[in-house]
Write a structure and sequence with these properties.
This protein is an alpha/beta fold. The chain contains 23 helices and 27 strands. The chain has 4 domains: 42 residues; 325 residues, Glycoside hydrolase, family 3, N-terminal domain (TIM Barrel); 202 residues, Rossmann fold (3-Layer(aba) Sandwich); 117 residues, Immunoglobulin-like (Sandwich). Bound molecules: beta-D-glucopyranose.
Length: 765
């Protein structure tokens, strides 16, 4: 403590030299520099390397940090931060060891995977993206930050902004889907929500955009697999959301596991220095993903010492779990493979993050157990979670307006996901108490009260394969396997269903069938669930399929045969209530798909903003020899990007452009009248797409360039207006120059990426 006081006093004296700095930011950056310069002068190489080290939380038990292995390392100044350790008490214990028992008293930074909420869990990120509501997403991140910071956390490993066009890849659940424009807006909303406008407050946390970069392009959708793509595709289609997060002022970046151009991201200097820092001007720190450095050994890049030096040389500042930097960099320095100046840069960036968070002023600023008691899992947060979850639900089909259901008579709720509260939060919800989430059965009962009767049967297990079942009933999310035969389970369900007025079938994936290392080669409903559905249909009762999923599924048979399908993702703590709100119509669904639903896996990758090819198939055309198509399936998706129905109907008028001929930096407006021609009030996500007809490089058939979520009362008409400027026409050309090219453009507006009204404009330079 004594050395810290001396350090602070000397820093205060030096701060006086900066009183003439006019600009507040410049001044505080100046103060930060002086402070860190002074601190680093006192640090040994080992202590500097300690700041680069981010071990897991180890086996810390409250009150025992000091005696644990991790406690020993903290005392020795060999730890920069810890992650995924939960509760104020544990965090305070660990922080105490750092600031009271280590030589330089440097506070630790505490990270966690706060991905879609903290204890109040919001829908999985793919679901959040389906809301197309940036204010809502920002609010969910704000609430997550309030709860996490109240529990001692000051750094989250979120947002995950990897573009994901392959639904076989389980981590599509954590992403915003397939589109770079939507993904960029969402990235910014997350950063604003977590970091607010002032990181020194005790209820904001530092965000970490991940996984940099291209992780979502893993070959064959198999997790951690190789990626390989042109710079063209990278810059135009995959990098924008990471850049948007950087532009929004994100404090940290996490590298991805995959390789890029043959060099793993963790050791890729082009990526982590030339692009991220030199081109984009990122000023925060870079952390690896879990053992990302060590994994470069298996990538075939050399031994631990070699890959650790490679990582530092590339621009890594902090090493998650693997301790390669801690244990080998001194040797590499002595051998001239890296320099002390490089270690200094990385150490400084980690210290700067702690400074920006205000941890040097008050290392315990997030350790207020009173806050933890009153700010976590509050009624207000639960209300927000319920409202948000309802906004993420996508109505895929609603034949004869089967939905919304009246609250009366007998409702049969059937399916293995109906009475399973632990699975409702979905993947990556590490801080949640799953037993406190609301199952669909509970949600239905709460909403209908005594106005209707709800009868329940499981009908089938989620999967009928014990090995697979063991893989998916992990992390405290049981599948509640019933040992009875499928026939017995189906018979029981059919008996209940036959006596009911309507059947709600709660089917789909278990939460852990998506997420990390949960790739699937077959993304249809498990056969046993399809058997149950067929048996339910055979009763002749109307069937509503409530589909739980962390990814787009292939549903051709279901779409053909089931009258109503509600895609509910994993809605978080309040999932059961939110689904009930939509089923009974107190909320009219307005979610739109952030990723294409294919007809079958053979179509993957399938995404709306593809190129035209030299042999395109004309729209609506059947198979044609020597055209780009399949013998056995059409090119169309089952449900296109941006698709989603409502209980009401929206009718689009003609698209009107304010001009059809433009020059230079002029702007135009594209307007369309939108009428709610149905019986219910509701919201529609109106989407703007543009096609650049001729370019110096080939251009996609359309690209999302804007959207507005518009609320209309039944019978109401509004004119929706988009302003378009040359900024919206820009792309990275062959030389990776970001500019627009004169020519003809098709402007399109519609309620999804397929059904659009269009008009053409000529735009000269
Ligand atoms: C994941 C990251 C996560 C990290 C820390 C890794 O396995 O890829 O997304 O932030 O673990 O839990």
């Amino acid at each position: 403590m004594k050395s810290k006081l001396i350090l602070l006093t000397s820093v205060l004296i030096m701060n006086c030299m900066f009183v003439f700095a006019q600009d507040k930011v410049v001044q505080s950056n100046g103060e930060m520099k002086v402070f860190i310069d002074a601190l680093m002068k006192k640090m040994t190489i080992d202590e500097k390397l300690g700041q680069l080290n981010l071990p897991g939380s180890g086996d810390i038990v409250t009150g025992q940090t000091s005696n644990s292995d991790i406690g020993k390392k903290i005392k020795e100044g060999k730890v920069g931060g810890l992650f995924n350790i939960k509760t104020v008490d544990k965090i305070r214990d660990a922080q105490k060891v750092a600031v009271e028992e280590s030589r330089l008293n440097i506070p630790l930074i505490f990270g966690m995977d706060v991905i879609h909420g903290y204890q109040t869990v919001f829908p999985i990120p793919l679901g959040l993206a389906a809301s197309w509501d940036m204010a809502l997403i920002e609010k969910s991140a704000r609430i997550a930050a309030v709860e996490a910071s109240a529990d001692g956390i000051c750094w989250t490993f979120s947002p995950m902004v990897d573009i994901a066009r392959d639904p076989r890849w389980g981590r599509i659940a954590e992403s915003a889907g397939e589109d770079a424009y939507l993904g960029s807006q969402i990235a910014k909303a997350f950063v604003r929500g977590y970091q607010g406008d002032d990181l020194t407050k005790n209820n904001t946390i530092m965000a970490c955009v991940k996984h940099f970069a291209l992780y979502g392009a893993a070959e064959a959708g198999r997790d951690y697999n190789t990626t390989d793509m042109s710079r063209q595709r990278m810059y135009n289609e995959y990098l924008p959301p990471y850049k948007a997060a950087v532009d929004a002022g994100i404090g940290s970046v996490m590298c991805s596991f995959n390789e890029i151009d043959g060099i793993p991201a963790t050791g890729n200097k082009w990526l982590l220095t030339e692009l991220l820092r030199d081109e984009w001007g990122f000023g925060g720190f870079v952390v690896t993903d879990y053992t990302g450095i060590n994994e470069m050994i298996d990538h075939g890049m050399g031994d631990l010492q070699t890959v650790s030096a490679l990582a530092l040389n590339a621009g890594v500042d902090m090493d998650m779990v693997g301790e390669g930097l801690l244990t080998t960099l001194k040797k590499s320095m002595d051998e001239g493979k890296i320099t002390e100046a490089q270690i200094d840069i990385a150490c400084r960036r980690v210290l700067e993050a702690k400074y920006k968070l205000g941890l040097f002023d008050d290392p315990y600023k997030y350790c207020d157990s009173k806050r933890a008691k009153i700010e976590i899992f509050t009624p207000e947060h639960l209300k927000a979670a319920r409202e948000t979850a309802a906004q993420t639900i996508v109505l895929l089909k609603n034949e004869n307006q089967l939905l919304p259901l009246p609250i009366k008579g007998k409702i049969a709720l059937i399916g293995p996901l109906a009475d399973n509260k632990e699975n409702m939060p979905g993947t990556w919800s590490v801080a949640a108490d799953f037993t406190r989430s609301v199952s669909l059965l509970q949600g239905l009962k709460d909403v209908v009260g005594d106005r209707a009767e709800v009868a329940y049967a499981m009908g089938t297990n989620i999967v009928n394969d014990s090995a697979l079942d063991a893989r998916i009933s992990v992390f405290g999310k049981p599948t509640y396997t019933d040992k009875r035969s499928l026939k017995e389970l189906i018979d029981e369900a059919v008996e209940i269903a036959s006596k009911s007025d309507v059947i709600v079938a709660a089917l789909g994936e278990a939460a852990e069938m998506s997420g990390e290392c949960s790739s699937r080669s077959d993304i249809s409903l498990p056969v046993n669930q399809q058997d149950l559905l067929k048996a339910l249909l055979a009763t002749g009762k109307p069937v509503v399929l409530v589909l739980f999923a962390g990814r787009p599924l292939t549903l051709p048979w279901e779409n053909e045969n089931i009258p109503a399908i509600l895609n509910v993702w994993f809605g978080g703590t309040e999932a059961g209530h939110a689904i009930a709100d939509v089923l009974f119509g107190s909320v009219n669904p307005s979610g739109k798909l952030p990723a294409t639903f294919p007809q079958n896996v053979g179509q993957i990758p399938i995404f709306y903003n593809h190129k035209n090819t030299g042999r395109p198939l004309a729209e609506g055309q059947g198979f044609q020899k020597f055209r780009s198509n399949y013998l056995d399936v059409t090119n169309e998706p089952l449900f296109p990007f941006g698709y989603g129905l409502s209980y009401t109907q929206f009718t689009y008028g003609e698209l009107i452009l304010s001009k059809s001929q433009l020059k230079g930096n002029q702007t135009i407006t594209a307007s369309i009248s939108l009428t709610n021609t149905g019986k219910y009030d509701g919201a529609e996500v109106v989407q703007l797409y543009i096609r650049d007809l001729i370019g110096s490089v080939t251009r996609p058939v359309k690209e999302l360039k804007g959207f507005q979520k518009v609320f209309l009362k039944a019978g109401e008409t509004k004119t929706v207006i988009f302003t378009i400027s040359p900024e919206d026409l820009k792309f990275y050309n062959y030389d990776l120059k970001y500019d627009w090219e004169a020519g003809d453009f098709v402007i399109m507006i519609g309620g999804n990426s397929r059904d659009v009204k269009s008009a053409q404009v000529n735009w000269l330079k």
